[in-house]
Structure formats: C-alpha cells, structure tokens
Amino acid sequence: MFKKVLSLLMVSVFILTLAVGCGAGGQNDTGENEDKVKIAMVTDVGGVNDQSFNQSAWEGLQRAEEELGIEVSYLESNQDADYIPNLETLLDANNDLIWGIGYKMGNAILEAAKQNPDQKYAIIDYAYEDTPDNLVGVVFKAEQPSFLVGYIAGKMTETGKVGFVGGIKSAVIDGFDYGFHAGVKYANPDVEIIRQYAESFTDSAKGKAIATNMFQNGADIVFHAAGAVGDGVIEAAKEQGKYAIGVDRDQNYLAPDNVITSAMKRVDNAMFNMAKELKEGNFPGGQTVVYGLKEGGVDIAPTTSKHVPADILEEVEELKQKIIDGEIVVPFNEETYNEFISENIK
Amino acid sequence: MLDNILESLAFILGTTLMYSAPLIYTALGGVISENSGVVNIGLEGMMTIGAFFGATVGYYSGNPWLGFLVGGLAGGALALLHAIASVTFAADQVVSGIAINFLGPGLALFLSRMFFDGATMTRPIDLEDKIPRSLDKILTKGTFIEKVFNQYDTVYLAFILVAIIWFILYKTKLGLRIRAVGEHPKAADTLGINVYNIRYLCVFLSGVFAGFGGAAMSLAVVSNFRPTLISGQGFIALAAMIFGKWKPQGAMLACLLFGAAQGLVVFLGGTEFQVPSEILAMIPYVLTLIILMGFVGRATPPAADGVPYEKDSN
C-alpha cells in the first residue's frame, strides 16, 4: 500500500522536476502588432543568466529591442531534451527568426529548419556542411582574440614560459590553441609554450592540477579554453599568485588580481547584427556567417587595462588593426600555424 | 636528476591528496549507509547540493567552516528524503537514489538562481575566505614536504574522519548495531535494536558526508559552485566504496588510488612522454577496473544491503 503511494509520489516528483526544467520568460505574447519583427531564442542548458554566451545572446536581443524596436523573447532549456519542445513552442508563436544558442542545439535546429522551410532559424557556434536556405550558422573567429591574449602573454611573461589548457580537442578549440600559440610566438619567439588537454570540460580539479603542474614547471601565465575546467586553472593561479587568461567572456571577476585578460566572443554583437540584417531584409539564409574582429564579433576583455601595461595595450590595438586589415592572418589549426611560423618568425 | 624526480613525485602526491579528499568524504558516506543495509546511489545528488550550499553560505557569511557545515547538513536533509522512501516506506532503494540524483542538481540550480540574481553559478570566494591551509605558514615554500602537504584543512579532516568512522563501526556498541542491522535486521530487531532508527541515522550521516565531499570541492578545490562542478564524483566514490569492500579504510585507499592515477595522468600529460591525452584520460578508470578484477578479490556487501526491512513480513 505504502509502496504504491510512494511510487506515485516519486513519479510526480520526477515529472515536476522535468516540468520545472523548461521555464519560460521574456515578453512573448503581445503579438498584436503584426508588422513588428519578432525574434526569439532558445538557450542551451546554461539558462539566460549563465554569465556566459546565453546571457550575452540575450543582451544582444535586448539591445535590438531598444534600438531597432524588435520584439524579443526567450525560452530556457534545462536539459538537452528541452530543445525540440522549446523550438516547437516558438514556432507556434509566429516568430520571424528563431535562434538556438550553442553548438549543442545543432541537430535540433537543423531538423526544425528542414521540417519548417517557411520559418527562419539561426544558431550560434555551429557551421553546417550543407545549410538549408532558411537557416544561418554563426561562428566566431576564436583564433583572433586568442592571438591577442597570446601576444599579451608573450610580452608579459617573466619566466619565458606560458601554458595553454584545452578542454577536448576539436576544430573550435584548435582555434584558441593555435591562435594563442601564434600570438605568443609573434610577441617573442623564444617563449616556450606548454600545452595540455584535460579531456573534459567539467573536471575543475583536473584543470587545477594541470595548471599547478605548469606553474611548478616554471610557467607564469596560463590561458584556458576548457569551460568549467578553467575554474580550476584560475583557482590555481589564485593560489600560486600567478596569472591566468580567461575565455568566452570577461572572467576577471573570478580572480581580480590574477586574470589579466580574457579572449571574448561577442555573441551579443552577432545577435544584434543579425536582427538588423533581418529587419532590413538581408537575412543571409543558407550561409555560415563568420564573426571576427572586423565585425565586432570577438575582442579582448575590457578589464585588460587593469593588469596590462599601456605600451603593450597600444601594440595590441595596432595588431587588432592589422588583423582587421588582413595584414595578419591568424592561424586556426596546425597546418596554418606552421605556415604562419615559417612566414613570420625568423 | 634526483631533484626532478622528487619534484615530479611531490606533484603527483600533492595532486593525489587534493583529488581524493572530496571522494573520501563521499565514499565514507556510502560506507555508513550501506553498512546499515541501505544502498545509497544518491551520493552524487547529495554531493551537488552540499557543494552548492557550501559555496553559497561560504560566500555570504565569509566563514568557510560554516559553509562546510551547512553543506553537510544540506546533504543530510536530502538524504532524509531517501531515508523516508527507503526505510519508512520500504521502497526500492535504487529508484529513490536515482530520484535524489535528479533532485539534487535541480534544486541547486533553482536555488542558485534565487540567491545569485538568476545566475547558475555562485560568486567566487576570496582566497582568505576559503577553507584555510593551516600548514601554509609552517612549511618552507618550495620544499618537497611543502608541495605534498600544503593542502586545505578539509584534506586532513577527511583522513581524521576515516579513522573516526572506522573506530565507530568496529570498536563501539553503536558500530556493532549498525553492522548487525546491515547483516541481519530481523535478528537485530529481536534483540531490541530499533532497525529504523539506526538506518535513519546512517542514511542521514551518509548525506552529511556526501555534502561535506561536495563542499570540499566548492570551498577548497575551487571557490565557486557551478552545475557541472559535481559530475561523476559521487559515482566514483560509490565505486570506491565497493572497491574498498564496504570498509572505511578500504574506501579511503580506493579513493587515494584513483586520485594518484589522476595525478599521474596530469603529470604524464605535461612531460615529453608522447601518449595521446585521450588514452591518458582513461587510465584512472582502466586501472580501477583492472585492480578490481585482479587484486581485490571477492567483495561481499553486507547481507541485508539493499533489502528494505519490514517488521511484519518474514
């Protein structure tokens, strides 16, 4: 008897947890104004206040609302299984464009785009081999800000050794990896770079162990592109009184004395630009749009000036301009890196 | 040459201690619960909630030990749900444990958004407000001893608790009762031991320990909580407990082994020794499997482990 009651209880707890998972937000049900452009986004599991790219994406849409008068809304996903139902919900709400935030939603968005050819879709951090006409993939040139922070590291290291901690090797992480390497070598060819992959994006303890090892082996600045593993990297810098470089957003707040700069993706700018293009009728359907320094899609953190001397910052600004002008083409994988080194470093 | 070897060894040993401490707390939790006859696969969820409360209370109060304590109590509170389901209502202990593993992270996420303006991760805690490193001032910087033993106090507390739990389980009347309840609850009951009370106590304590394990992650290993901070440690601790044959000292050794393997992997990954890091990352798990199969021998759980006790049934 008790068992039955209990199993009923358990089941309801389960269902409740799942239901709580997909909370809705934003102002998405004032669809009276027909000629207003409507844009909605589905967050990945981080949610809209994740202090990372979901939050940045939502800020971009909010700016589009203020400056372009676009109607915006979002749905949060608390687990991977929420993507498809969330996309369905937005499809029914007559949106002009539906965003998926994060590569995790790659397949869900592609399926939705194929099934609903009249609905426009876009996704952050995903490039398709073959993009349907109603879909846009948006990717960032992560190698460019990585190059800039690498340059800063190469100039600022006192031991002549810096480190790179990667999450799991992939094309995206390669961009950070080789961009950083190129930047360091461009600043000073004699600086040695230690590279290690954690084979995880979540194991903070491992990140801490790797960075501790790098610091003990003489590195004094470590850059990470490893998600939550990076929390451990920054923690190690904090404990050992060394420097770390953050990623994706300005991570200085995690350790104000130790995070000297961050390689940032400006997801907000990408979202805003796309809203503008959509409003002007220039939606680049069927393409993969690449945002770099030139488009304001990547940058280094605004807090960089706290730790980095003004003369190095000036040089970084010059480098930015050179990258924008195409004078410097930053490498993004092993092959382009080797070319870069043989051309630029004597 | 010798210096290099010593330095590498110091790094591996230091990493072993850092890595295994949270696992030891949690595995101890498993030992207590299962010795009383309640399977607890909800350790992961209890660890997560402990990590969240540890980081949150630590951040707002500025007192890491208070955070650590509240983290433990939060784990204990979640464990009480498991106890109600599996002891009072004699439900399937695995199912209720799985429910806890869903509930823990969900609750942590929900509360995090409440306490931190909608953010899914807590604000970082300053170095001086983390769990202290008492040996930091005593040991000379850069020496072998310093590199190995300059750890957060939670590391040493973990070992002290192993000794205490060992003593309680094997040297006290209470321990005898716990083990009797885990082996043969009916016999214990006829001798006047309250099976339910003992099991409630043990499940609660297991939650407290798992909560400590989580808080040791969020207050010592790093200084903030995020939803992925606890991803698998609870299950590794569970495996370590089985590996350690349901004994506190065995579980501790298993956790140390796992930590050492991680230290070795990180060390090898940083040397010229060319092994793909994917392969290296497997070592701790493969090593655990091999030792479990080859060297530990038959591991027998307490006879009534996982069997709900109902007074009126036979």
TrEMBL record, chain A:
Domain ABC transporter substrate-binding protein PnrA-like spans what residues? 40-333
Q: Which residues form a coiled coil?
A: none
Q: List the signal peptide residues.
A: 1-24
* GO CC annotations, alphabetized: plasma membrane
Question: What keyword terms does UniProt attach to this protein?
Answer: Cell membrane, Lipoprotein, Membrane, Signal
Compartments, record wording: Cell membrane
In the bilayer, the protein is annotated as: Lipid-anchor
User: Pfam families from the xrefs?
Assistant: Bmp
Chief subcellular location: membrane
Similarity comment: family membership: Belongs to the BMP lipoprotein family.
Stated name of the protein:
BMP family ABC transporter substrate-binding protein
What is the source species?
Thermohalobacter berrensis
